[in-house]
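Reminder to self: tokens first, then the designed residues, so the page reads top to bottom the way the pipeline ran.
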């Protein structure tokens, strides 16, 4: 092992968990940027952005799970109906916890994209520009665009 590597010491005791307060600060910064760039809402799907802002670790294939953060007001979540309990459990541990999260569920014969569009309309954002993270599946982004 090179001496420079062997000389490294552990910094494990300096590591601190990311708090909900820090995540709320991230969200407020995102909202300021959204406002500056005239973006009405941000759609987060499973991946690093969802974890960064919400502390939600979600995996699970082709079914849409989304957190929609409007530039103003409360966010809403869209998930399969059979995943609602799991979603609420994870939401409760993040910055939007508190038991009053707006979780909109869909069944296999319903459109999750229509729920996203309806949630935007409910917040007065039916015609707003929407930011969708770059890692979102094309089928999801197309579905949301078509429904909106």
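Designed residues (148 positions):
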């Amino acid at each position: 092992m090179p001496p420079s590597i062997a000389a490294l010491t552990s910094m494990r005791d300096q590591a601190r968990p990311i708090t909900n307060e820090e995540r709320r600060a991230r969200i407020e910064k995102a909202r300021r940027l959204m406002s500056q760039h005239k973006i009405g809402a941000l759609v987060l799907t499973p991946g690093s952005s969802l974890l960064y802002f919400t502390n939600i670790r979600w995996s699970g294939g082709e079914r849409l799970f989304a957190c929609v953060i409007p530039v103003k007001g409360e966010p809403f979540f869209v998930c399969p109906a059979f995943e609602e309990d799991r979603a609420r459990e994870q939401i409760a541990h993040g910055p939007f916890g508190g038991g009053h999260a707006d979780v909109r569920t869909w069944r296999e014969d319903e459109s999750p994209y229509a729920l996203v569009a309806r949630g935007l309309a409910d917040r007065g954002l039916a015609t707003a520009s929407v930011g969708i993270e770059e890692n979102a599946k094309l089928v999801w982004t197309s579905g949301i665009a078509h429904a909106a």
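The chain has one domain: 17-147.
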